[in-house]
Write a structure and sequence with these properties.
Elements (H helix, E strand, L loop, with lengths): L3 H13 L12 E3 L7 H4 L18 E4 L5 E8 L5 H18 L5 E7 L5 E8 L4 E3 L1 E2 L2 E2 L6 H8 L14 H17 L7 H15 L10 H15 L16 H16 L11 H11 L13 H10 L8 E3 L6 H14 L3 H11 E4 L3 H12 L7 E3 L14 E6 L12 H11 E12 L1 H4 L4 H10 L1 E7 L13 E7 L9 E6 L5 E4 L2 E4 L5 H10 L7 E5 L19 H21 L1 H12 L21 H4 E5 L12 E7 L8 E5 L9 E5 L8 E3 L4 E2 L3 E6 L6 H12 L12 H5 L7 H42 L5 H15 L1
Parallel strand pairs: 3-4, 9-10, 9-12, 10-11, 12-13, 14-16, 21-25
Antiparallel strand pairs: 1-2, 2-3, 4-5, 5-6, 7-8, 13-15, 14-15, 16-19, 17-18, 20-26, 21-22, 23-24, 23-26
Helix pairs in contact: 5-8, 6-7, 6-13, 10-11, 10-17, 18-21, 18-23, 19-23, 21-23, 23-24
């Protein structure tokens, strides 16, 4: 039986590869003392005692599937010297017992403890004997994850495997622990990427042969890094990627950091199949990659852009702001994949065809380390400023891929300067694909620059990326800009515009995890095939007033009735929540209007904006709110709700002392701020001039208010801080008016109305109780009104009941 320390090791090794080490049905792991509840497993080992005495020997652990069938059988020993015995027992004894019972799981031997050295060996039953599981012909020395095991167990598969990246949740957990250790060691956010990168590179370079005691570990990390950079012929960067040997706390914490990285196989793999590179980029993302002022391009977006530009074997690829080298790596991967290059051919291609610049020393060193982990560091990576570098390759590149640092202060280079410098690096007819803030494509202040670009170059595509792409690190609104150098944009040429809302990942806490329905593949196909998909992508001629914003050119989606009804239900819930939260204020407002202390006026009617019969403009007057509410800082608290650009609380900014309130109902749509969060206003209110007002034309069905608001909300992706909602733009939205839909919308409104009135009725009675109590106290002071007081008390009791 294994000891506690090797049980800890086994649990760590499994968890590092994403195995759920809880017992079924929640997890996948059964330990020796847990077999008693699973007789079908106990029966397998009857009479298979390791001592040969005829009893029942039990393996250290079994990993099972949901049907409780064995996937992996494991035996563990507490010392490295016990590895051979663990191998013999897990195959000859436990493994053969399973084969005799008709099961053929993977057999794994583990030896060592969590604190000291350890070893792992894995075996597969090939129908005749147990053979080692191998990677490039050599036995693997790590714990395979569930996907690896399932591939190995599939019919007609060999014992050869390729390593796969652990799940992002596992990497995030390990990164959290490393971040905690670095924080405890006093390492600043900005310095953490260098510590993680240096440790990973050192472990790989030395194959784990660094001393782990506090006196030597940091020096050994620096020495191994130095050797790696010298070997890659980049000695000038060796000093940029190192750890502080004088940090005594880090010297203690580094032992655990190296253990975590070893559990992820950093020391034992080669660069051939890009496991280390993927691990480096993914892990680096979760250990503060944003903290040195750059937002590194997600790996899958970089790969998408290499496919978009169709990079081929002989293309020279330039990234003038290469960061940790994501675009260069993606270009290399595409060429290797498309042309089936060997590692030797790959290294030759990299040295000749990939060029990158980054002036930040640590980032440039991390980029070279990224290349080293893929088997090459002698690439064209320069620690230099692309704007001033003497060896900048003017007119040499076939493709430029880049994601320049978005400016944080006035002294930073704006994105348009990077576009111009990138174009200088291209040959005539070369392609630029660059991630830019969408403001560059739409802001009026950039219009002259956009026109200048079109006088000399051709705009090929503008693709909106998910707004959350760089979150939680940056709240930017990114897009991919694609230009062809040297040919003035032809009059009437159609440009590809697309919006990607699902890049295959979604936010979960502080990380992005896989989701189904990714649109990158579909976007690439639409670009290549000239497809038009309403609401998603299309081809259009650029119009001066609309800039290059995809929302101005992609044809409108035809929403289903189910989509509209769902959005209407959300609007109705917003109304109900608003009424419940502000019931007392709304009661007082209604009383003031009834007593004519406040007199609402009708909103101003605007001119007709759209003659088409199926648009919002055909059924609504559209104008702006009141200029008097442009500055709300001087408003005193009062009875009147003021609607502004707020996307919450039904658009209400607050309740103020303001007399120019408007007669409801109408729709409000923010033109700035929380873009496009339309609401239906059912109470008299003031509306600030940063919101549009949609007032039904005579004879329009009242239910259309909610349908119009729903459509505005569903189309809000078309607008941002550079391209605002305007009356003419919103007037063109299609407005479904069929009777069946409107009937269901009316039902939804009526249900919400009952909830609102109940909330107000309860508030009204509560106010009456409060008034009655106050009056009762006053009457109690006057003995002459005792009778009237008793009457009021009875009324109060009735109200409270």
């Amino acid at each position: 039986m294994a000891h506690e320390k090797d049980e800890v090791l086994l649990t760590e090794l499994l968890a590092a590869q994403g195995w759920d080490t809880r017992r079924p049905p929640n997890g996948a792991m059964l330990r020796q003392h847990e077999y008693k509840d699973h007789t079908h497993l106990l029966d397998i080992f009857k009479g298979r005692s390791k001592s040969g005495g005829g009893g029942a020997g039990l393996p250290e652990a079994i990993l099972v599937d949901r049907a409780l069938q064995p996937l992996v059988v494991i035996e563990a020993k507490g010392t490295l010297a016990g590895l051979a015995l663990a191998e013999k027992e897990v195959t000859r004894d436990y493994g053969m017992a399973m084969v005799d019972a008709g099961a053929t799981p993977i057999a794994i031997a583990v030896a060592g403890t969590s604190e000291d050295d350890f070893a792992v060996r894995a075996f597969k039953w090939n129908g005749k004997k147990w053979v080692p599981v191998t990677y490039d012909g050599n036995p693997i020395t790590w714990m395979p994850n569930r996907e690896d095991v399932e591939r190995l167990l599939a019919p007609n598969t060999t014992a050869e495997m390729r390593p796969s990246i652990p799940p992002v949740e596992v990497l995030a957990d390990r990164a959290d622990e490393i971040n905690r250790l670095l924080r405890e060691a006093g390492i600043t956010d900005a310095a953490r990427p260098a510590v993680v990168g240096a440790t990973m590179l050192a472990l790989w370079q030395s194959k784990g042969a660094i001393r782990r005691d506090a006196e030597n570990i940091l020096g050994d990390i620096n020495e191994a890094c130095r050797k790696a950079f010298w070997k890659a012929k980049k000695p000038d960067l060796a000093a940029s990627l190192r750890v502080d040997e004088a940090n005594d706390v880090l010297a203690v914490k580094a032992r655990r950091i190296t253990t975590i990285l070893e559990r992820l196989n950093v020391t034992v793999l080669t660069a051939e199949h890009d496991y280390l590179g993927q691990l480096y980029e993914t892990f680096f993302h979760y250990t503060g990659g944003n903290t040195i002022g750059q937002y590194f391009t997600p790996r899958h977006i970089a790969a998408f852009m290499t496919d978009l530009t169709n990079i081929s074997l002989n293309d020279v690829v330039l990234d003038p702001a290469c960061g940790t080298g994501g675009f260069l790596i993606a270009s290399m991967n595409r060429v290797v994949r498309e042309h089936k290059l060997s590692r030797v051919q790959m290294v030759a291609m990299v040295k000749k065809n990939l060029i990158g610049f980054d002036q930040e020393p640590v980032t440039a060193a991390l980029c070279v380390a990224n290349m080293i982990l893929r088997g090459d560091g002698s690439t064209g990576i320069r620690k230099d400023d692309c704007f001033t570098a003497g060896d900048y390759p003017v007119g040499k590149a076939n493709v430029v891929l880049m994601n320049p640092p978005f400016p944080h202060k006035k002294t930073d280079a704006p994105p348009e300067r990077f576009v111009e410098r990138a174009l200088e690096g291209l040959k005539h007819g070369g392609t630029l694909a660059m991630i830019v803030p969408r403001s560059l494509a739409v802001k009026k202040q950039k219009q002259a620059w956009r026109e200048g670009i079109l006088k000399h170059h051709t705009l090929t595509a503008v693709i909106k990326l998910p707004d959350q792409l760089f979150q939680p690190y940056a709240s930017v609104y990114p897009a991919i800009l694609v230009l062809t150098k040297g040919t003035p944009h032809p009059a009437g040429k159609k440009v590809f515009f697309a919006r990607i809302e699902n890049d295959g990942l979604k936010r979960k806490k502080n990380m992005r995890v896989p989701r189904t329905g990714e649109q990158l593949t579909q976007t690439l196909a639409a670009y290549r095939n000239h497809d038009v998909i309403p609401g998603y992508c299309g081809w259009a001629t650029v119009v001066h007033d609309d800039g290059w914003e995809p929302g101005a050119y992609i044809p409108a989606e035809i929403f289903t009735e189910a989509q509209i009804e769902e959005e209407v239900a959300g609007l109705a819930r917003s109304q109900g929540a608003f009424a419940a939260l502000h019931a007392h204020e709304l009661c007082r407002l209604e009383r003031a209007v009834a007593r004519k202390e406040l007199i609402p006026t009708a909103p101003k009617r605007s001119r007709a904006l759209d003659d088409a019969s199926d648009t919002i403009g055909a059924y609504f007057h559209i104008g702006y709110g009141t200029k008097a509410l442009h500055d709300k800082s001087m408003l005193a608290p009062g009875l009147v709700p003021v609607v502004s650009s707020s996307g919450t609380d039904n658009g209400c900014y607050g309740f103020f002392d303001f007399e120019a309130l408007l007669v409801p109902p109408f729709v409000t749509v923010p033109s700035t701020g929380s873009i496009g969060e339309a609401h239906v206003q059912e109470w008299p209110c003031g509306v600030a001039d940063d919101a549009l007002i949609l007032v039904s034309k005579k004879g329009a069905d009242p239910a259309l208010l909610y349908v119009a608001a729903a459509i505005a909300r569903m189309e809000r992706w078309r607008f941002n801080y550079g391209r605002k909602v305007t009356p003419s733009r919103i007037a063109r939205f299609r407005l479904p008016t069929n009777a069946a839909l409107l009937g269901r919308v009316r039902l939804s409104i009526e249900n919400a109305e009952q909830i609102k009135r109940l909330a107000l009725s309860n508030a009204e009675e509560a106010d009456d109780v409060s008034v009655a109590r106050t009056r009762l106290v006053e009457i109690g002071r006057d003995q002459d009104q005792l009778v009237r007081g008793k009457e009021l008390e009875q009324e109060l009791n009735r109200l409270e009941l």
